[in-house]
Specification:
- The protein is mainly beta.
- The chain has a single domain, classed as Porin, CATH 2.40.160.
- The protein has no helices and eight strands.
- It has an eight-stranded antiparallel β-barrel.
- A hairpin with a 7-residue loop joins strand 7 (128-139) and strand 8.
């Protein structure tokens, strides 16, 4: 069985960052809500499912702990493409997800990172599903800056399969 889908998600994210340009390294953290949209395609063969997904998410997470005089910096947007593989059973679908993310900030810094996570969805009707997901974003060099930024996020979603 093949199916496309679209979903809307709402969740929360936690940022941890280490900027290695400073001695000692500058450590910051932050957290805030996340909202996203995704579209994807899944192919099912027996109980096994595989597919791809593209997504956008707004994640205005402000870096807390910056030195006095620094401008406010926030992680703002993420554009993702990821693969999904998993298992379907009755109305349930569990997948592992891995891919790439392009992130932006409010001060013009941007860059590529990796994203990995897991999700569980429940088919409520023939076409409507709801689910939860955990994702971890990894950034290691952002606009040429040697930093280690990670965002952990948990989200709930509702979607429509067509």
């Amino acid at each position: 069985m093949d199916q496309g889908y679209a979903s809307l998600s709402l969740g929360y994210g936690w940022l941890h960052d280490v900027d290695n340009r400073f001695v000692p390294a500058l450590r910051t953290a932050g957290s805030d809500k996340i909202i996203g949209l995704s579209v994807g395609y899944l192919h099912q063969a027996g109980k096994f499912v595989a597919g791809a997904e593209g997504a956008y998410q707004y994640q205005h997470i402000v870096f807390q702990g910056l030195p006095v005089g620094f401008p406010e910096i926030s992680a703002d947007e993420g554009w993702m493409v990821r693969g999904r593989v998993g298992v379907a059973h009755d109305r349930w679908l569990a997948t592992a997800n891995v891919g790439a993310i392009y992130g932006t900030t409010n001060i013009g810094m941007k860059g590529w990172g990796a994203i990995a996570g897991a999700s569980v969805d429940y088919l409520m009707t023939a076409n409507i599903f709801a689910g939860v997901a955990y994702d971890h974003q990894f950034y290691r060099n952002f606009s040429g800056v040697p930093l280690d930024a990670d965002i952990d996020q948990i989200s709930m979603r509702i979607g429509y399969k067509f």
